[in-house]
Amino acid sequence: MSDAIRLKVEKIDKVFKRRDKPSVEALRSIDMSVAEGEFVSIVGASGSGKSTLLRIIDGLIAPSGGRVLVDGRAVDKPGPDRAMVFQQDSLLPWKTVVDNVAYGLTLAGTRRADAERTAQRFIDIAGLQGFEHHYPHQLSGGMRQRVNVARALAVNPKILLLDEPFAALDAQTREIMQTELLSIWQETRKTVLLITHQIDEAVFLSDRVIVFSARPGTIREEIPVTLPRPRTLELKRSPAFVELVDHIWKLIEAEVRAGIKQS
Ligand SMILES: Nc1ncnc2c1ncn2[C@@H]1O[C@H](COP(=O)(O)OP(=O)(O)OP(=O)(O)O)[C@@H](O)[C@H]1O
């Protein structure tokens, strides 16, 4: 990680206006930054505006106030400097793994042979060797998410935005995917902003965890995670890890419980 600020979020507010219904204030005055090569996660109760913030950073929706800067330049629409991975895979079912991973590059005008070479590199990094010519329906959920990550990385974004990428996976696959994501990150050194409901996932992966308050989302606390790297799943059993997870859980527990009662 370098000291250079890659992503800066300045005083972001978001109010959703709805016809014939009260407006929803989703985010209030969010200020945060992520350094080049840093891995940061956001946790918070359901409805605290985490996905809304990620969509604003990606440029998919406009904020009501404030701005997003990438390397000091304001961005207000999607661009090749940011790539998003969603909870549900968004692969093209009629294209093979290699064509899915190369898709963004060919769209951007890269020659097919070059796009395929780059795609192959990220297929290798994502541990998908041997599956290049499979179609999405021939892959497990975990493998489809690896293809999604490979596809996002293939366009060489400055920032990887991950919106609950493992939420649809079973618990064991999810843990394996966490370690794989770490090794991909170690190899590519991308700047990563991840949203997750799982506090242990956030602590395991991150350099820093940002804790949101309930709606309207505000930053309640930023917690540096100084646990040594490289990290293995063993770390989850260490007292320092358990203590951090517990601290974060206590910060959001009341709101998570209140949310469950409302739903
Ligand atoms: N297009 C929209 N119109 C109106 N309200 C919206 C819209 N999108 C989101 N919201 C509301 O904004 C609030 C924040 O939603 P958001 O999905 O960002 O929260 P979240 O923290 O990601 O939640 P979860 O953890 O459940 O995914 C919620 O109350 C949601 O209902």
From TrEMBL:
Signal peptide (residue range): none
MF term (GO), any: ATP hydrolysis activity
Family of this protein: Belongs to the ABC transporter superfamily.
Domain ABC transporter, residue spans: 7-239
Keywords associated with the record: ATP-binding, Nucleotide-binding, Transport
Entry protein name: Sulfonate ABC transporter ATP-binding protein
Keyword ATP-binding part of the UniProt annotation: yes
